[in-house]
Amino acid sequence: MATTDRPPRANRNRVALGVLGLLVVVGIVVAVLGLRAPPQMGADEEVFQTVDALFTAVTGRDEQQLGRCEHQLRAYRDAGRLPPGAAEYLDSAIHRARSGRWESAAEQLYDFMKDQRREGASHRPKKPDRPPKAR
Q1: Average pLDDT for consecutive 10-residue bins of the chain (135 residues)?
Q2: Where in the sequence is the domain holding 94, given as residue range(s)?
Q3: How many structural domains does the chain have?
Q4: Distance in Å from the first CA to the final CA of the chain
């Protein structure tokens, strides 16, 4: 009696190779997305000062200052002084902080600030201090 079914071992090997292939693809996508630089906020000094104040608010876990910075950054975005990509990136950091992930938000903002190229700015901004480590 001949059967066309594959032996169970061959099916398992095929499934294992499929899962391995999927993991490789997911790993590559995650690596590429992780290597992308944050968007640029431009050379507007007031925007930079507000982002610096946002970093201070997040590292200090200051809800009121966080709200003031969020409001000001929204006004800069609406006035065209803060590019949409940078505004979205900062909004995600604010959302992290509001959800209680203050340290993660501080790290995100630190990375954002250190990767800024201030073309057209009259001076080089001071890089923020490293975010505090969890205790």
Answers
A1: 63 82 76 70 94 98 98 97 96 97 97 83 52 61
A2: 45-114
A3: 1
A4: 68
